[in-house]
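Researcher: Let's do a round of design. I'm pasting the structure tokens now; please hold your answer until I've finished.
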């Protein structure tokens, strides 16, 4: 099973850093291509039976995004800490849940982008 989906990481150096960190933590990685954005997340992470799920919205997006699947909370925190330590920011990050495994990458991106914008608004309000 794939543990980390990578979207739109344009810089080869940044992609290499993220993949190296992931491999060091024992994660399997997959770079998701734009033509796969309509496939269910569960199918992309090779969840058994997920290939039977219907494809969804495949709207293209250009934001960088990472999706982690089937990793412990400790491994998730180690991954986030590693990204911060090596100064490799990616704004949109998610863990798979029983609810979002059937979503397309485009739907998940839409949810994460909206959540990220709301968080930025709250931070602006707090720091005024």
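Researcher: That's everything. Go ahead.
Model: Designed sequence:
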């Amino acid at each position: 099973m794939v543990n980390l989906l990578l979207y739109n990481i344009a810089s080869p150096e940044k992609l290499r850093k993220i993949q190296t960190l992931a491999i060091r933590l024992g994660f399997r990685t997959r770079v998701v291509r734009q033509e796969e954005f309509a496939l269910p997340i569960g199918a992309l992470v090779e969840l058994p039976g997920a290939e039977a799920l219907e494809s969804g919205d495949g709207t293209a997006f250009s934001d960088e995004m990472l999706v982690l699947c089937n990793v412990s909370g400790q491994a998730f925190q180690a991954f986030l800490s590693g990204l911060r330590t090596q100064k490799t920011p990616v704004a949109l990050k998610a863990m798979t849940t029983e609810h979002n495994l059937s979503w397309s990458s485009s739907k998940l991106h839409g949810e994460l982008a909206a959540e990220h914008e709301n968080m930025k608004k709250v931070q602006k309000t707090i720091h005024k």
